[in-house]
Amino acid sequence: MKVRFTSVTLGVLFIAIPLGLLCVTKFVSSMAQEAPQEKRNWKVKKVGPRRMGIKAKEPDSTNESDKIIEDQIPPRVPIDVEIKNLKGDSFLRDVEIKVTNTAKKPIYFLELSIVLPDNLSPAGYPIGFPLRYGRPELIKFENPLEPDDVPLLPGDSFMFKIPERNLEGFERLVAKGKITQAEVKRVYLVFVQLNFGDKTGFSTTSGSPEPNRPHGQPLLLFPILQNI
Predict the structure, then answer these.
(1) In whole angstroms, what is the distance from residue 130 CA to residue 190 CA?
(2) Mean pLDDT of residues grouped by 10 in the chain (228 residues)?
(3) Could you give the CA distance from residue 59 to residue 89 in angstroms, rounded to a whole number?
(4) Among 108, 119, 130, 123, which Cα is nearest to 190's?
(5) How far apart are alpha carbons 128 and 117 in whole angstroms?
(6) What is the value of pTM for the model shown?
(7) Closest CA to 93 of 184, 158, 228, 176
(8) Which residues, other chains included, contact 139 with Cβ-Cβ below 8 Å and sequence gap of 6+?
(9) What is the largest CA-CA distance in the chain?
(10) Angstrom distance (rounded) from CA 179 to CA 172
(11) Helix segments in the chain, DSSP class H
């Protein structure tokens, strides 16, 4: 049987074909948008301490989908650091910092800080979360030990997590839109202070032992907002 195409039939075909292709394109596009996006991976890079006027070692080239944790702890500080639990949905709530005392002496006070350099406070400073082991008064080397002070013995480990009160403060600022960038994409792990309890230790002033030297509050390498 012969099929005859009239001008009307051809016109309908010319309209229907592009419309069909357009519908298919929109369907594929909508499916791509609804598909779950690839989860970004956290990469830990040991870059050493950042000092005023001295640029830290640049991290190795990474994939654009990676998120970066810069371990800026000076290599001379006698602790071994392992950053754990990086596959959770909430980095700040899930991350754990395992610290092992590799010195030959007990550690009575240790302070590190997790800093978010791209997440600025309303005052314009990077957000920081203090991680402390030991009695806060021992941030001063000259302060004496007390019977209740429990040291981290050589070879022993301690697991740090961000304190809940700090997390809640950060989340309130995010909810109010007062943080410049809500998503955490870059993190610094910073060393602040270590006290052996015998008036010696390490501090951010030099990253070297500082025996018999009075110290006040630690000198941070950049201003941070610690207690949100």
Answers:
(1) 9
(2) 52 50 47 51 84 44 72 94 89 95 97 93 89 96 96 98 92 86 88 95 65 36 39
(3) 24
(4) 130
(5) 8
(6) 0.70
(7) 184
(8) 109, 111, 193, 195, 215, 217, 218
(9) 107
(10) 10
(11) 7-34, 91-94, 164-175
